[in-house]
Amino acid sequence: MRLIREFEEHCLEKALAGTIVGGIHPYIGQEAVAVGVSACLRADDVITSTHRGHGHVLAKGADPARALAELYGASTGLNRGRGGSMHAADVSLGIYGANGIVGAGAPIAVGAAWAARRAGRDDRVAVAFFGDGALSQGVVLEAFNMAALWSLPVLFVCENNGYATSLPVDRGLAGDPVTRAAGFGLTAEAVDGMDVEAVAEAAGRAVDACRAGAGPHFLECATYRFHGHHTVEHLMGTKYRDDDEVAGAWSRDPLTRQRDRLTPEAAAEVDTEIAVLIAEAEAFASSSPGSDPGDALDYLYAGLVPARPGA
Amino acid sequence: MAAEVLTLGKALNLGLRRALERDAKVVIMGEDVGKLGGVFRITDGLQKDFGEDRVIDTPLAESGIIGTAIGLALRGYRPVCEIQFDGFVYPAYDQIVSQVAKMHYRSRGLVRLPIVIRIPFGGGIGAVEHHSESPEAYFAHTPGLKVVTCSNPADGYTMIQQAIASDDPIVFLEPKRRYWEKGEVDAEAPAFPLHSSRVTRPGADVTVVAYGPMVRTALDAATAAGEDGRQLDVIDLRSLSPLDLSPVYDSVRRTGRCVVVHEAPSNVGLGAEIAARVTEECFYSLESPVLRVTGFDTPYPAARVEEEYLPDLDRVLDAVDRTYGW
Ligand SMILES: Cc1ncc(C[n+]2csc(CCOP(=O)(O)OP(=O)(O)O)c2C)c(N)n1
Ligand SMILES: [Mg+2]
Hints:
Oligomer: heterodimer
CATH class of the largest domain in chain B: Alpha Beta
CATH superfamily of the largest domain in chain B: Thiamin diphosphate (ThDP)-binding fold, Pyr/PP domains
Strand order of the largest sheet of chain B: 3-2-4-5-7-6-12
Largest sheet of chain A: 5 strands, parallel
Bound molecules: thiamine diphosphate, magnesium ion
Low-confidence stretches of chain A: none
Number of strands of chain A: 7
Distance between the termini of chain A: 48 Å
Strand content of chain A: 5-15%
CATH architecture of the largest domain in chain B: 3-Layer(aba) Sandwich
CATH architecture of chain A: 3-Layer(aba) Sandwich
Radius of gyration of chain B: 19 Å
Order of helices and strands of chain B: EHEHEHEHHEHEHEEEEHEEHEHEHH
Distance between the termini of chain B: 51 Å
Number of domains of chain A: 1
Strand order of the largest sheet of chain A: 1-2-3-7-6
CATH topology of the largest domain in chain B: Rossmann fold
Largest sheet of chain B: 7 strands, mixed
Structural class of chain B: alpha/beta
CATH class of chain A: Alpha Beta
Helix content of chain A: 40-55%
Largest interface: A-B, 41 and 40 residues
Number of helices of chain A: 13
Mean pLDDT of chain B: 97
CATH superfamily of chain A: Thiamin diphosphate (ThDP)-binding fold, Pyr/PP domains
Mean pLDDT of chain A: 95
Helix content of chain B: 25-40%
């Protein structure tokens, strides 16, 4: 969690300074979800993520240096600088991508789980992370249906942070997420998404059940994003949440909560280790060569069809 | 109202306000359009003044937004739907292409769908993937849809009102990189028909056809070319479907040279259609083939390199030069 928090703080600064072109959707406040779920995953499990994906990608094991390089548009990045903040991926680690289209990752996870089933490997689980807003997208409900219909090893993780951009969840969503998921035949429960151990416990049960062939599961994690929806909100001074509400959420900071469970020495050790990792990541990313506009026509197709330069 | 200097964003906002005032059946719907006033603030203040019943924050559901707009329109409403960014229209593409576009034809005119689908489009603002696309050809290729785009505040103000007043479904593309550019808006000025193109800068030497965000680029190129003694006839298409190409033909018959500029990729784009029609109509007047200046045939690139992708003044001038090379 500390790694994600510091990574995001660093990115926030770099986005506001313009080093990260296009800004980021900061994950700060929601770390317990990515970390609690990923703690239950193996290297051969896969995840799909969202526009707010840095936390998921790091928790699944992506190299922070290459992740940061990706955000800097460097050729050493996870996608060699072409994916950027919203499309960081590392297929070799089972990270099937952050995703700029809300809801789009859910059926992709179902497909990956389907492949596992066809290979007789239900023990390989696919996790789809998405927000409360994504529950309004038809494609997510299509994914629920297919996963349940074919009883696939999928864990759907809904991070309910109370808002889809400016829209409060009670203005965007009818009913409650757990009941909705249960209606599709998913085994569904809600958990405190600000407590990493509670998330890990619930996700652990769900993942074990998936591996045992019990079919798809759904976990609603109640959480909060501490910063704006996107860094552009910092620049525009956008406001749609009460100061009190935001302050109240900070008082439930998942990092503070976990720190209280550690000895001061252990906590300090983590801090030092993470500070080194972030410094190394920055050194790596900022010294990496940028991507070359000259290769813009490469990689359009797997076959040897050169892209047309256009006119 | 006397003429006022407004940004394109404010001009659109004012046009929407006039439409809401004029007709109680006009409703605005979309993601974050109410309390927030839209991510580009085009609907700023409208919910406050017209109520949550007229300016509606919808769930995050593009297909549902357009689908429910059809039902509303069938019962007499005039929905104005905002799609937050170009790259998010595709979940609604099915409703637009399979339902919106076909109902009037299929019902032999019994059913009218006065729906406006506003989409901020194009690049140039340093945004990430899905936030800089130019999807106009997908819609212009679909019979039954009308597609228009404004390039300046005066057109933004009038065209949005004309589109809302129209009984046909209209995809209304707004060049997001030009939202902050200012121009004079005169509410009393006579309006040009919505589906008409216009010569925005006359010139005798080369016809340059552009629309939306590229009109400014073409005008800048015309200024630069003028300094070198070459006069560009710049035409703002404004309507992409139906196309109004008579002014283009008239121009090309005089100049013999034609360059079409758009941000979208060239492959099967608007430029190809225009080149074909100009060639058919003006074949014996042409001194050179119709040339295109466009985006590359790749997905829109990372923001860091977008300036390499976007047609700019130099690429337009280069094409103008090349029309003299035949
Ligand atoms: C299909 C689609 N529509 C709209 C958007 C623009 N958009 C990006 S994030 C977002 C809100 C997402 O809310 P939620 O799913 O709750 O995730 P959160 O941002 O709260 O993490 C919106 C509307 C998008 N990326 N994709
Ligand atoms: Mg949310």
